[in-house]
Specification:
By secondary structure, the chain is mostly helical. It has a domain of 51 residues. It has two helices and two strands. A two-stranded antiparallel ribbon has the order 1-2. A hairpin with a 5-residue loop joins β1 and β2.
Length: 82
Amino acid sequence: MESNPPTIWTGLQAAPPDPVFGLIHNFIADTNPKKVLLGVGIYKGEDGKPFVLNTVRKAEQMMLDAKQDKEYAFPDGYPAFR
C-alpha cells in the first residue's frame, strides 16, 4: 500500500461541531407533531411549503433596487456594524 506524500492539509484537525446543526438533528429525531425548528432554515406554512416573510421580500427588493450584491458577511459581521 502506497502512502500519500504530506500536503498543506496534513495534520489539519476538524473544527468542533456546529451547535446549530445539532439543533437540526435533535429536531429531526423529535417525534412531537407540534415541534418547531428553531435552527437555520426556512419557514414553512401549514401546507409544508416554504413561506417567505413579506419583510424578506421587501428587503430583497430594496437590495435589487440599490443594485447591491448578496455577498456573505465576515464571520464577525461587517466592520461598519461592529
